[in-house]
Structures are given as C-alpha cells and as structure tokens.
From TrEMBL:
Enzyme nomenclature, EC number: 7.2.2.11
Reaction it catalyzes: Ni(2+)(out) + ATP + H2O = Ni(2+)(in) + ADP + phosphate + H(+)
Subunit structure: The complex is composed of two ATP-binding proteins (NikD and NikE), two transmembrane proteins (NikB and NikC) and a solute-binding protein (NikA).
Topology with respect to the bilayer: Peripheral membrane protein
Gene3D superfamilies reported for this sequence: P-loop containing nucleotide triphosphate hydrolases
Taxonomic placement: Archaea, Methanobacteriati, Methanobacteriota, Archaeoglobi, Archaeoglobales
Keyword Cell membrane appears in the UniProt entry: yes
Protein name in the entry: Nickel import system ATP-binding protein NikD
Residue ranges occupied by any ABC transporter domain in the UniProt entry: 8-261
Keyword Translocase: yes
Keywords (A to Z) from UniProt: ATP-binding, Cell membrane, Ion transport, Membrane, Nucleotide-binding, Translocase, Transport
InterPro entries assigned to the protein according to its UniProt record, in alphabetical order: AAA+_ATPase (IPR003593), ABC_Ni/Peptide_Import (IPR050388), ABC_transporter-like_ATP-bd (IPR003439), ABC_transporter-like_CS (IPR017871), Oligopep_ABC_C (IPR013563), P-loop_NTPase (IPR027417)
Molecular function as annotated in GO: ABC-type nickel transporter activity; ATP binding; ATP hydrolysis activity
Species annotation: Archaeoglobus sulfaticallidus PM70-1
C-alpha cells in the first residue's frame, strides 16, 4: 500500500465579488500518493488553479478558503496545511512544497539575475549560508535543469532568456530545495510545442531523480496520457471522476470525461482548449442545481437537476459522481 502525501477533504473556496459569490471550488476531495504524478484536468475556469493554490493557502482576497482540510504527511508527521499560521506555511511553501506556474515571466523578478533568484530561494530556506554560496549552487541547479551554458546564464536577467530557458529557470527555483511535492500549474502552456516536450521530460526526470511527488495541472489530455499515474477530472468547481490513468482513458465513467476524450480522438494529438463539448461552462455564481454538468449532459434526468451526486468508488480506486452510473 502506497503512503499518502496529501489527503484533500471537502476543499471549498469562494470569491466574494461585487457580482456575487463565485463558488470556485466546492467540496473537492482527493488523495495524492507518494512518488506519483497526479493530474488535475478540465476545461478553463473549472477550478484547477484555485485548487492547486488553496492547498498551501495561496488564495488572495476577494477569495477565501471557506471549508475543508488538506492533510500533508512528511517525516515530521501529519498536519492540516490549512490550519498552519502564515509563517508556518511559508516555511513549507518553496521548500517541501514547490510550485511551477504557467507563465515563467510572472514567476521571475525582472530586476534580478536568475542566479540571484535561485540563490535567494536557497538562502530563505537556509540551504546555503550566504547568497554567494547560493550562486555557486545555482550553477549546479541550472545544469540539472539542462540550461545551456549555465555558468553564463546564471548572471542573465530574465529578459535575456527565451521562454523555454525562463521556464527551466523557474523549475530550477522550484526544485532548488528538493521539494517533496511539486505542483506544476500548466507548466508548458505558454511554450512552443517542441519546448513543451522538453519541459515535460525535465519534470519527469526531476521526479525520478529526487523521488518527488507531482501534481500536474493541465487542460491537455495528451499531457495527462504521457505524464500521469492518476487523474482527477474537474468540472465547474467539482471533481467528477477520479482514478488510475488507464481506467480513465479505457473506461471513462462520467459523461463529461467521455466528452473530453471524444474531443481528443488520439490522446497524443495536442489541442489548445477542450471546448468541443456542446454548451458552455456554467456560472459559478449561480451554479446549476443538482449535478453541475446536467445542463450539458446527454443523460440528464430529473434527479440530476435536483440532487448533487456524491463522488463514490465504483471500482477499485475509480470514483465517479454521476446518478446514471453505478
Ligand atoms: N480573483 C478572482 N476573483 C473572482 N473569481 C475568481 C478569481 N480567481 C479565480 N476565480 C474564479 O474561480 C474559478 C476557477 O478558476 P481557476 O483559475 O481555478 O480555473 P482553471 O481551471 O485553472 O482555468 P484555466 O484552465 O483557465 O487556468 C473561475 O470561475 C474563476 O472565474
Ligand atoms: Ni488555471
């Protein structure tokens, strides 16, 4: 039995906007096992990034985590990350749990060299005694992320690098403290196709080298097929299906997952957006009653419009939230 690094329970985040309360994610629950790649997949706006950020309390006003628990197990024991103080969670974030975001531009500070930024990440978490030692270590880290000419690149500013190099640098910052859990939010979406493959290979490589656990966020089923061990499919702020990657691709149970896969006849073909399912994603201010997918679902009946289906385990490790399956 594999051990659990994360146990996410009923995680709920709302945004208090002038237009109303955006119920961005509602009672999201999933586990992440040690050493695996867990993918969160779904259309734009379904709540993937909010989920990823909420795991370490990275939700800013007007957003608020209104419910749930995120149990994190390390050699120091098991804690609910949502109960930690700002200072305690900051210690974990960037060291044990690191993020790689979609846009390397926004994760890098234009005013400092890449070497300085890696060095600072190391210094803040007390991996090096001073920033100068950090710069030396930064060259090694840049070499690990296969940055060309790391001795030279270490003194580059972000604007002196290509998009792919910048993403390598942010991965370098991400892995600088040997994180146990790496959360990659669409790490390749902003990059050219060839660079995308290289960066995904790099993440795989880092994972193997350091035995890290990865949460990968993507809207691309091809990326899921190539990278994930297990998959959570999100729709309109909820997880609708959860299971082993083979089960999800071979025997998708939820009509939404089936739609997603029909939209990608060959999972190895890259597509930009999963928008081929008829209808549009519902408003999260006034989400549909009952199952949130019911307005778009070919199988929807009256119970679907009245009662929210629970996520239940139908087969070993394969969960689905649908009144029509089971
Ligand atoms: N600051 C905010 N204020 C109001 N609503 C927000 C805010 N941030 C996110 N949301 C809402 O939360 C919902 C989930 O957003 P999220 O960014 O998690 O989606 P996503 O699945 O990551 O989409 P994408 O694939 O486009 O990155 C969206 O409906 C969005 O409008
Ligand atoms: Ni996102």
């Amino acid at each position: 039995m594999k051990s659990k690094v994360l146990e996410v329970r009923d995680l709920t985040v709302h945004f208090y906007t002038y237009a109303g309360i955006v119920k961005a994610i509602e009672k999201v629950s999933f586990d992440v096992y040690m050493g695996e790649t867990f993918a969160l997949v779904g259309e734009t706006g379904c709540g993937k990034s909010v989920t990823a950020r909420a795991l370490t309390q990275l939700i800013e006003s007007p957003g608020r985590i209104v419910g749930g628990e995120v149990y994190y197990t390390s050699d120091k024991g098991r804690v609910d990350l949502l109960k930690l103080s700002e200072e305690e969670i900051r210690k974990i974030r960037g060291s044990e749990i690191a993020y790689i975001f979609q846009d390397p531009q926004s994760s890098l500070d234009p005013l400092y060299t890449i070497g300085y930024q890696i060095s600072e990440a190391l210094y803040v978490h007390k991996r090096v005694e001073n920033l100068k030692d950090g710069i030396k270590k930064a060259v090694e880290i840049l070499r690990t992320v296969l940055m060309p000419d790391p001795e030279k690149r270490v003194s580059n500013y972000p604007h002196e690098m290509s998009g792919g190099m910048k993403q390598r640098a942010t991965i370098g910052i991400g892995i600088s403290n040997n994180p146990k859990l790496l959360i990659a939010d669409e790490p390749t979406t902003a990059l050219d196709v060839t660079v995308q493959t290289q960066i995904l290979d790099l993440i795989k490589d880092m994972k193997e080298r350091y035995g890290a656990t990865v949460i990968l966020i993507t809207h691309d089923m091809g990326v899921v097929a190539g990278m994930a061990d297990r998959v959570g499919v999100m729709y309109a702020g909820k997880i609708v299906e959860l299971g082993d990657v083979y089960a999800i691709f071979k025997k998708p149970l939820h009509p939404y997952t089936q739609g997603l896969l029909r939209a990608v006849p060959n999972p190895l073909v890259k597509i930009e957006r999963l928008e081929t399912i008829p209808g549009t994603v519902p408003s999260l201010i006034n989400p549909p009653e009952g199952c949130r997918f019911s307005p778009r679902c070919p199988l929807a009946s009256s119970i679907c419009r009245e009662k929210t289906p629970e996520l239940v385990e139908l087969e070993d490790g394969h969960f689905v939230a649908c009144h029509n399956v089971g």
